[in-house]
Amino acid sequence: MTAPQPSATAPIHLPRVAITYCTQCKWSLRANYFSQELQSTFGTSLGEVAVIPATGGLFTVHLTYRPKLESGEEGGEVKGILLWDRKAEGGFPETKVLKQLVRNCIEPGKELGHSDKPSSKGRVAEGGEKVGSEEQGSEQERKEGCGDCK
């Protein structure tokens, strides 16, 4: 008699945040910190937060969610968006910026307290909202990725 095989697909609980990080660069603590911060801020408003190990200098944050209708109910097609990419942005997000990006998609009316104050660093996004990173990294790292995983 053989043991039952686990299912290859598990149900996905939306909204879902997926943080993919490079194990060679040792970004596990950073990924888990962001995961904890999002869970602490949004609680049961998030269906799940996945922390996914990878290689190659990756640090990305993806959000999969079903947009809310004007009535406030969820509806429409499921959307998947890239909230942050370390290589494209030239560094890591500030915690408050990441919270704002998630909030803007899943709970636009939610107050984030001190996290709603404009960032003192970074670039200006659509609508004049400032977005930035805590660590900019060296110019070489931004162009080539980290040296640990080459």
Please outline the major beta sheet: 4 strands, mixed
Distance between the termini: 46 Å
Tell me, briefly, the overall form: globular
Q: What is the SS-derived class?
A: alpha+beta
How would you summarize the topology of this molecule?
Layout: E1 16-22, H1 28-42, E2 48-54, E3 59-65, E4 79-85, H2 86-89, H3 95-106, E5 123-124, E6 130-131, H4 139-144
Parallel strand pairs: 1-2
Antiparallel strand pairs: 1-3, 3-4, 5-6
What does this structure look like?
The protein has 150 residues and is an alpha+beta fold. It has a single domain (16-133), classed as 3-Layer(aba) Sandwich (Glutaredoxin). Helix content is 25%, strand content 21%. The protein is built from 4 helices and 6 strands, in the order βαβββααββα. The strands form 2 sheets. It has a 4-stranded mixed beta sheet with strand order 2-1-3-4. Helix 1 links the parallel strand 1 and strand 2 (48-54). The protein is globular.
Task: Give a short synopsis of this structure.
About 25% of the residues lie in helices and about 20% in strands.
Which short descriptors sum up this protein?
single chain, 150 residues, alpha+beta, Glutaredoxin, four-stranded mixed sheet, two-stranded antiparallel ribbon, 25% helix
